[in-house]
Amino acid sequence: MARKWRPKSFSDMVGQEHIAKTLQNAIEGDRLHRAFLFTGTRGVGKTTSARILARTLNCKGGDPLHPCGECDSCKDIDGGNPMDVLEIDAASNTGVDNIRDVLERVQYPPVIGKYKVFIIDEVHMLSTGAFNALLKTLEEPPEHVIFIFATTEVNKVPQTILSRVQRFDFKRLTMDQIRGRLRFICEQEGINATDEALDIFAEKADGSMRDGLTYFDQAYAFTGNDMTADAVRSILGIPPVELFFALVNAIENHDLKGVFKMVDDACTRGIEFTPLLDGFGKFIRNLLYTRINAFSADDLSITEELYSKFKNTALSLSNGDILRISKMLIDLQAQLRYSTNPRLMVETTFARMAWLDRLTDLRKALAAINDPKSASDEALKKKVAEVEQVLDSSAEDESPFANIPGDSAGTYSRYEIASAWPTLCAGFANDGDLMFSAALAGSTLETGDTHENPFPIALTYVGETENNASWNYQQFMEHPEFLERLQTILEDKLQTKISLKVKTRAFTEAEKQIEAVRRMTPYEQDLQKEPALAKLQQIFAAELVYSVQMKKNVAPVGDIIDPNNDN
Ligand SMILES: [Zn+2]
Fold this sequence. Notes:
alpha/beta; Helicase, Ruva Protein, domain 3; disordered C terminus
């Protein structure tokens, strides 16, 4: 299908209308450049457009914009081994000799059509020598020669070449465009494909029409003329959404059996772990989106029915649950490729998700300890009561998006605000303000001269380097309203005017040392001290959870292996 329905004129090209229009204008106005550069990611139609341009320019039919498909030139090009169009893949012909070979042929006039067209694909792969040889020809190309270069990496093409070509930037295709083209092909071929099935191709294609068509072909070879979403998913190894609802349900009910069954189901269906986890990531994202009401069913390309299913599931989880699940998922995705037993790793991580005690928000409890307001007995009691209340109440559905964070901690002095920061942050998370609290995660408050008015405060993200453009910091750059909001909150807490800014900085030497030790558990320190432990850990891919120092040469009570006895 991909081959059969490859576009043959500019009017068939999907998604690159801006390019087709410019080229058509140039052809009509007879203002044609001698050399073109087509850039863009893979599979967006660069080579196809180059072929269309060659076909259009050489057609002998009456219409200058629509190749006739009948004349000598059209037939020659359609035949597959055209005399006037030369395609070179620079990826496999990088050397200067290859290019000389090509340039030799530039001097000979076209045989059938008006132009001799040279299409050089992946042109950035040419060697410097090859580029220089090419440059000479580009400076004074013969009248009958057209060069079309295509590249995925325009930044690697020398400036000397760039200045001598007309450049066209190809866009990635939208899901709509890919879906539309596939729908067109289905109509022409009499294939019954559901919208949902075509959505799967369009989404998996990720902006590349060629990939979309390849997946379509793969599926078509099995399904024939009746293409359902379920069949397409099973052929492409894409996990169905029910699998994830089952997984989340199992996690929510601490149902380990359910978790393992889901992994088993996925394996039985031949779904690999990478698409499984990617799919779960998208699922969690949809849960978040429906929870915060920021997107409609249409925006998410799902049915209203599925949308409300997402919504119901999302509301049965707390923000903390969703954040923890996604954090564990992201960690899992990062570690999976190094794992020798990916299935076990996936199963144990999902099991840990199910073990999550959703009633406990450790962060809140810890924050209470750091908070200066905890100093007095009275305040401490209040804090404990508060933590307990949070633990008890988080099972109930709270409003998912409260606008004003809880005022439980009252007001703070200028000296206290920085150390109270973790408590305040925990408050935002528990009040359900997801994006805002996620953006604040990992930040500290740094205060300036306490006598100054307005009181200077910097929301600081500390990292390995000064330019640690972490996701959290980015959020503040992209959402100025976050900063305004934080300002209001802090001014309320301090009962004074403040001047607030956001900054990043690198760890100081002292902080680096603290950080290194903080990251190391006592057992990890033992691991460093005892090479034997490290070896055991390596052999059994074990996680050290407990270790105890024993006296040398004293064996524990019980069965003893005597090192002096060869038996
Ligand atoms: Zn023709």
